[in-house]
């Protein structure tokens, strides 16, 4: 892949990589994930010795230490799932919009899901996890369509600046609507305030189980659209020339991304910037071929979210920092760095 | 004997100037009218004669407390904060030649908010020290955003995107401080964050007045230089404007006003963002937008607070009302700008 076929030629002039290097990176990434997995189960607010940890993994919950570890296992599982979903969703959004700044957080999609969930809780007394997920997905979908319509209207189509501004504006708007809904409702304010920040703490298997079918469909659609995204990366005319139905390809891939981030937001609250950082890092490792990039982004997202969650548990002992805050603190400087790399005219 | 063309031009200019004065007078009258209404019509009705007597310092049973202690500080604070937001916002928009480059989008308001929340929750400070910290932090963030977007000069679009990133980071800092806040300060911080003039006291008006007099006066004195910046840096320099110095002065005074107002009332959403464009729509390109924007800002906060208290089903702080108002306008602006093909 050279020249025009490269989606981000300014960033990675020699983005083509041989499959051997990619396989090496894959092995490396899985090894990192394994290390993080171990860390996530062993590290926490409470220090637990190894015997208890191994007993807890076996299912025992006799001592306080074992019970603490037993709580960490579903949390780790949720962090993996949510991270993979957000990383993948970010990679797809960047591919569909051909825009290096696309991210479910910046484009306002997560805030859309969160507004929908807040409306459901406040006005319709929604409480079942299934209802959370459906409204989250519906909100994410509406917000995505809304932001993309605004951002791509007028001259020049969907430039990164217009999309980012439309997303930021929509996020601010949705956030103030959330406040307007929550403020007179003291009964739900506390719960929503903590959910709004985005975290994986307090996860249980009961909360995770209803998410799985939605995420599975989302992952399947997303990963299967890799080839379509590769064609889209060539530009609309070339993709159409290759026999790709551009609008359908975009719609299907976006549907996958919306399923993923809507579901994740419904369970964890809005977590930003993960979908921005991960695909960029993965592109530096393995190039721009979406057949590799998409699975890598999923794995990388899982690793980054898990890492951020562990970091949040460690740096504020004895308290914890929610993972949504950690990802924003890591991701926002990254966002600024990308902005600084671009030449002005291209923004 | 003047030629017809010159006579026409003179006539045209005179009419423009007259129109400008009359529109400004109408705006001012509107502010005064709403100010009067908020003083006399609240949860209970106070006859205007009583209101006037209270204002002149007489002790009127039943009215002295409601008007003098509750409504007057609230209205005064609304007007002053609105003027600060409007003036500071439009100064940024003019200087950066972009209607979207208002302090609430590019992180300056977030910076002041983060500092104030930190002061309230972590340092348990209240009162004027919070304002000082918020002003310092607002300035710091302005310098940071400016510095980070500096690469062979500052381009407007890069500055806005960097600002969005910085704002997101500061929001997460605010979120973190709030999660670790004990319940009693959390309430205070949340109230503050939505932006409201609840529980206003006349003593709070003093920093706002000072900021308006000092920074607002500076800006108004430099109106010509600021307007010249709108033509582009090179043209402004050719017209004899010291670009770097003017820009510094504008940043300092606009941030000073915005941060002071933010420190007193909290970040009242979108007032800084909306005032300039609304004033521009009313006045077209008829002269400087500074004073009109200040009036529009005052009007927005006054009317928003009144609506939030009395016209809506449950009582909302003014920030929620202006936020709900601002969001559709923002989207309208984006659509309009991209349709006309202007530069965002």
Structure description:
The complex is a heterodimer of chains A (347) and B (344). Chain A has 15 helices and no strands. Chain A is mainly α and 347 residues long. Chain A is globular, with a radius of gyration of 20 Å. Mean pLDDT of chain A is 80; it is low at 1-15. Chain B has 344 residues and is mainly α. Chain B has a single domain (18-340), classed as ABC transporter involved in vitamin B12 uptake, BtuC (Orthogonal Bundle). Chain B has helices at residues 4-40, 48-55, 63-95, 108-121, 128-148, 156-179, 183-194, 205-221, 223-229, 233-238, 243-265, 271-283, 290-311, 318-340. Chain B is globular and about 65 Å long. Classes of the chains: A mainly alpha (347), B mainly alpha (344). The interface between A and B is large, with 51 and 51 residues.
What would you say about this model in short?
The complex is a heterodimer of chains A (347) and B (344). Chain A is mainly alpha-helical. Helices cover 73% and strands 0% of the residues of chain A.
Task: Please render the helix and strand layout as text.
The complex is a heterodimer of chains A (347) and B (344).
Chain A: H1 19-42, H2 50-57, H3 64-97, H4 109-124, H5 129-152, H6 160-182, H7 186-197, H8 205-208, H9 211-224, H10 226-232, H11 236-241, H12 246-268, H13 274-286, H14 290-315, H15 323-341
Helix pairs in contact in A: 1-3, 1-14, 2-3, 3-9, 3-12, 3-13, 3-14, 4-5, 4-6, 4-12, 5-6, 5-12, 9-12, 10-12, 10-14, 13-14, 14-15
Chain B: H1 4-40, H2 48-55, H3 63-95, H4 108-121, H5 128-148, H6 156-179, H7 183-194, H8 205-221, H9 223-229, H10 233-238, H11 243-265, H12 271-283, H13 290-311, H14 318-340
Helix pairs in contact in B: 1-3, 1-13, 2-3, 3-8, 3-11, 3-12, 3-13, 4-5, 4-6, 4-7, 4-11, 5-6, 5-11, 8-11, 12-13, 13-14
Radius of gyration of chain A: 20 Å
Anisotropy-based shape of chain A:
globular
CATH architecture heading of chain B: Orthogonal Bundle
Strand content of chain B: under 5%
For the terminal residues of chain B, how far apart are their CA atoms? 47 Å
The largest pleated sheet of chain B is described as: none
Report the order of strands and helices of chain B.
Answer: HHHHHHHHHHHHHH
Number of helices of chain B: 14
How many domain modules of chain A?
A: 1
Organism (chain A): Pararhizobium antarcticum
Family (chain A): Belongs to the binding-protein-dependent transport system permease family. FecCD subfamily.
InterPro entries (chain A): ABC_BtuC-like, ABC_transptr_permease_BtuC
Subcellular location (chain A): Cell membrane
